[in-house]
Amino acid sequence: MAEENTTETTEETPAAPAAEPDTGTDDWAAALDDQNKDDGAPASFDELGNGAAVGDEEANNLDFLLDIPLKVTVELGNTSMIINDMLQLSQGSVVELNKGAGEPVEIFVNNKLLGKGEVIVVNDRFGVRITEIISQAERIKNMG
User: Which fold has domain 70-144?
Assistant: First the structure.
């Protein structure tokens, strides 16, 4: 019969650290006390520039933005149709759009409306002559 060697090991668990006082409540109380104090002095704020003048150094910092590519899209018109009608389309089919010939087309930059224009042909290529650019306020409104 084989002998078994058994050794017993005992591991001590480290004692839990002593509880620290809860300072979070004291911090909030101090902050509320500071907020409730009214020394009568008005708040002071730094003056903001009018933004009209941009220094040469600031202009040079913005030059890198001039090389960012933008996606320009011209929408001739649109329509809606049911799936059955779409499946019946074949080469040579005509899809009627909601705009008539000669009506202004919308010009989008990065999917945001920029203005309106008219379709022109130059050297067998289509182009758009911009006839109207929406106001800056409208462009900002369309961004949201």
Answer: Surface presentation of antigens (SPOA) (2.30.330)
